[in-house]
Every structure is written in structure tokens, then in C-alpha cells.
Amino acid sequence: MPMASTSGEHSSAKRKRVEEPDASLPTRDKPYFDDGNIILAVKNSHFRVYRGVLATLSPVFSDMFALPQPTKGEILVDGCPVIQLDDSVEDWRTILSAIFPSFEYIEKFSLPMHVVETYLRLGTKYHMEEFRTQAVKRLSYEFPATLEELDTMDNHSRINACASYADEIFTVINLARSHDLPRVLPWAFTAACGLLSFEDIFRKTGPTQPYLSQEDQQICVVGWRRLLKEQRLTTFAWLKAGCSRLTCKHAMQTILIDELLSSDDPFRKVVPTKPECIALARWQKGWEENLCSSCMVMARASHRRGRQRMWDALPSIFGLPEWAELIKP
Prior knowledge:
Layout: H1 7-19, E1 27-32, E2 38-42, E3 45-49, H2 51-57, H3 59-66, E4 76-77, E5 80-85, H4 89-99, H5 103-106, H6 113-125, H7 129-142, H8 147-152, H9 165-178, H10 185-195, H11 198-201, H12 214-233, H13 246-260, H14 293-317, H15 323-326
Parallel strand pairs: 1-3, 2-5
Antiparallel strand pairs: 2-3, 4-5
């Protein structure tokens, strides 16, 4: 005659049943919309989605939904009819994440600028924080607020390249002005000075092309002049600090002529366009040629420190608040 279980054993068995749910029961997988009207059952996963969307995308589902549906004895899950599918769960996760993308899925891809604009504009207007956050993250990545972020950025990996640099930069500056995103302005203005001509900066308004306000046009011009001056004193200060060897002096003078001479006089007739602004140019191996080991070590260290000083000075160069103020959440 079996012995009756003790209360402790009974309690233990009860806890086990509660803590270890039946693995055979289906699980809610993503996406699972509260107002969805159809359940896709794939293996042990349930996806709750919208039959109208599936019917639009697939004639197979369209024909299936067009057939008369049984009403008596039909098993419903969360009030929805269930369609059994024999494909892999991962395949359906992939397809459904493309049809009903989550932000985790969207973040894997770069987006066109006009989509980012829409996210920021409507996300701000209607307090849809996920959309605004997504736009801010992408803009902040492509137009960084630290030198470390700039040096590790994979350009155009978060926002697709626009038709021109001017379209991209002007759009970002205008978005920053209208949607309280000042952190992107220093690098946006620096990029304008380094990549655009005066003709670009002062281009007339067009039916679709973005353009700068007169105030921001003036900021670009004044900032460009300041950058040309400061790049000689910060990033490229090492060109005036070499040793007394003639080979080093000649090498530095060559770099000065090739890279920076046009910044001495922005109105020299031999310069058909504005002088080049390379205030934050990274170190180039070619600059080391014909430098002695001491000058090379000095130059690289000076260039690294100078770039950081140049970066720190960007907000003031363009008449903006300090970085600490610009990057406040």
C-alpha cells in the first residue's frame, strides 16, 4: 500500500508545476500585436499580425482568406483564428520583421535622409519618442560631437548619401535649427567649410534643394576664415617646430606649400576657389617622408594634440555655446 505523500512533498510538487510550464505550449513570438486579427502558428511559435496586410502582400494568403471560414468548433487564440504553417520559425521571424519592422530591425540598415527627417519632424511634433530618438541617434552618429566619434565613424552607414554634400549638410543644419539638435552643428558647419564651395554655400533657393539662411551662410564664411587661421596654430603647428636639419625644413616647407599655403591669402588670384580647410585632417603617412625620427615623433604628437584643441574650439569658431552645453540631453 503506497504511503501518502507528506505536505512538504505535495508543496514541492506543486511549486515545480508552477515554475516549470509545459514546454509544449505555444509561445508568443515577435511580432505579436494586441489588435492583430490572425495568428500564424509556426512550430511552437505564435505570431499575431494583420490578415489584410498579409493578403495585400501574398496572393496565397489572399485566396486563403477569401475562402468561407468555419465558425463552429473553430479554435481561437486571443479571439483570432489560427493558421498552421510548416515553415521554419526563423524564416517567419525574418519575413515578419521586414513587414512589421521594429526599431531593433530598422537599426540594422541605413535610411534615406528624407526618412530621418520625417522621423524627427513627426516624432517631435507628436511626442513619438522612439521615432525622434532614432533620428537623433543617426544624425548624431553621422555628425558627431567628439573627436573619438569622428575618428571611428563609418560615414553614411546610418544615413544614405544625399545627391550632394550641400544637400546633406544644409538639411542637417536646418533640422538642427528647427528641432533643437545643436550637438550636430559644429561638425556640420566644419564639413560645409571643408567640402563646399562658396557657390554651394550661397546657392539660390530651389523647388526641392535645401539652402542655408543668410545667418548660417554668414556663419560658414566667418567660421571658414577662423578655421584657416586656427589650423595653422593647432593641427599643423608642427610645421613650424622642426629641427634645424635642412632635409626636415625642406620637407615641412613642402607640406606647408602643398597643404596650407593657399590659406595665407584667401584672395590670391592663383586660387580659383576658396582655400582648402583641413583643420581636422588625420595624420598622413606621406608627411613623414624625409623627416628625421625626432621630427616625425614630434610632428605626430603635435598633430594629435592640435586636432583635439581644434575640435574643442569648433563651437566658439562658429559662434555656438561650448560643447558641454551643446550635448546636453
